[in-house]
Design brief:
Blueprint: H1 3-28, H2 37-43, E1 52-57, E2 60-65, H3 71-81, E3 87-92, E4 95-100, H4 103-113, E5 121-124, H5 130-139, E6 144-148, H6 151-164, E7 169-172, E8 185-190, H7 199-203, E9 205-215, E10 218-226, E11 229-234, H8 262-265, H9 268-276, H10 283-292, E12 301-306, E13 309-314, E14 322-324
Parallel strand pairs: 5-6, 5-8, 6-7, 8-9
Antiparallel strand pairs: 1-2, 3-4, 9-10, 10-11, 11-12, 12-13, 13-14
Helix pairs in contact: 1-3, 2-5
Length: 326
């Protein structure tokens, strides 16, 4: 088979795989509250944003590459690019530093961002550029800014975006500091796990702006009142992302929960509480609270940012169950 025929066949395979992915996300209900996102996922070719990626195999990772001379390998690459699964895209000394998130989770997060026509969006964590392309398709290039600390990540994201026909603003810088020269923003979405919400983001938001991002092992959605105050609750879904790098990064292991019953150690909701209270409660204290409060779901927790203070809470921002985040 000639290279031209192979590329033509792969293009057809990619289109069919993308259509199947859209149907799968549609069936999941991820964008039910804002079906306009369907058009973005139909239009944006994910495979252009993952020219290679890594899949876990026994003993490490296997690299799948779109330029492989083996047609079967290239077919596996295309099919994998449209699987509803996260893809590891950049490793450093065996550590994952960048990835393309699970598409259905991306669709849910974009829906929960609650964008409106004309909104200006800042994305923290450029990744492959795929999420920025989805935003640019919906809102227009000039309304989307994406930032990442690593120059090689932003260079690759910019190239992927251009190959797909999108040109949002791609900035190399510390996402914890935002992008003040592009402010004000109506929405901020983080695609990396936060230890706390950087205060610089609030100052770059319009009143009423929405900030959405991973914190602990959940997704927090905050409404910004002004440059010094924001508040909101966690969504129901679990979320696991690469940590924020730069000034906002704090590498900390979860406390050892070996002293609590196995049913708690194996519970996603208990591990969420453990992550949220790691600086405030010992595992046994967290377990006692978890049992006393009826093993609460994520939606009962929230976060408040007020001036120099930031705290997580259960049920009530001013209630007895509250823990500082910084």
């Amino acid at each position: 088979m000639s290279a031209h025929a192979l590329d033509r066949d792969l293009a057809g395979l990619a289109a069919a795989a993308r259509a199947a992915l859209v149907r799968e996300i549609d069936a999941s209900g991820a964008w039910a509250a804002d079906p306009a996102w369907r058009a973005a996922f139909e239009a944006v070719p994910r495979h252009l944003f993952v020219p290679y990626y890594y899949v876990g195999v026994m003993g490490g990772y296997e690299r799948r590459w779109g330029e492989s001379p083996d047609p079967r390998t290239r077919e596996k690459w295309v099919r994998g690019a449209y699987a509803d699964a996260p893809l590891a895209t950049r490793l450093r000394d065996g550590e994952l530093v960048s990835s393309s998130s699970q598409p259905s989770l991306m669709a849910m997060m974009l829906t929960e961002l609650r964008v409106r026509d004309g909104d200006r969006v800042l994305e923290i964590g450029a990744g492959t550029g795929y999420n920025a392309a989805l935003l640019a398709h919906r809102l227009g290039d000039d309304h989307v800014t994406t930032v990442d600390l690593e120059p090689e990540i932003t260079e690759a994201a910019r190239a992927h975006l251009a190959a797909a026909g999108y040109h949002p603003v791609v900035v190399t810088g510390d996402g914890a500091r935002g992008v003040p020269e592009r402010a004000p923003f109506d929405r901020i979405i983080a695609t990396c796990t936060l230890a706390s919400v950087p205060t610089a983001w609030l100052a770059q938001c319009r009143p009423g702006a929405r900030i959405l991002g991973p914190l602990a092992t959940g997704l927090i959605a905050l409404t910004v009142r002004d440059a010094g105050h924001a508040e909101g609750r966690f969504l129901h879904t679990p979320a696991y992302f690469v940590p924020l790098r730069g000034a906002g990064r704090r590498d900390r292991e979860l406390p050892d929960p070996s002293g609590v019953p196995r049913r708690a150690r194996e519970s996603d909701l208990f591990r969420f509480l453990l992550a949220l209270t790691r600086d405030s409660l010992a595992p046994r204290e967290a377990y006692a609270l978890w049992e006393r409060e009826g093993r609460p779901s994520r939606e009962r927790y929230g976060v408040t940012v007020s001036g120099d203070r930031e705290w997580a809470w259960l049920d009530d921002p001013e209630g007895p169950c509250a823990w500082p985040l910084r």
